[in-house]
Specification:
With about 100 residues, this protein is an all-alpha fold. It is built from six helices and no strands.
């Protein structure tokens, strides 16, 4: 299967998701967090670094649960408007994200 290139908006959301997860993880080790979420440490590393900008919803949900983040918090953070960008111009709604 060929993956389509990420749009700038998708890449930005991936960076925001990674930053949020790193902040929420704090001093907790990446290995401990990944194992508790039942994902590989490499997967968590790629998500936190933004290399995997569009991870599967169950993966995000598992990591968020381990870190004590609500999915509402995650959604709000990755979709916050950028200054100077028209609100809602390229955002998908929660239902579309959950279906992807």
């Amino acid at each position: 299967m060929v993956r389509l290139p990420l749009t700038p908006a998708e890449a930005e959301r991936g960076q925001r998701l990674g930053a949020l997860l790193r902040r929420a993880r704090g001093d907790r080790s990446m290995l401990e967090t990944a194992l508790d979420a039942r994902v590989s440490p490499e997967t968590l590393r790629k998500i936190e670094s933004g290399r995997v900008a569009t991870p599967a919803f169950p993966t995000v949900a598992a990591i968020a649960d381990v870190l004590g983040l609500s999915l509402d918090e995650v959604w709000a953070e990755i979709n916050r408007p950028d200054p100077g960008v028209e609100s809602g111009s390229s955002r998908r709604n929660a239902r579309e994200w959950l279906a992807s």
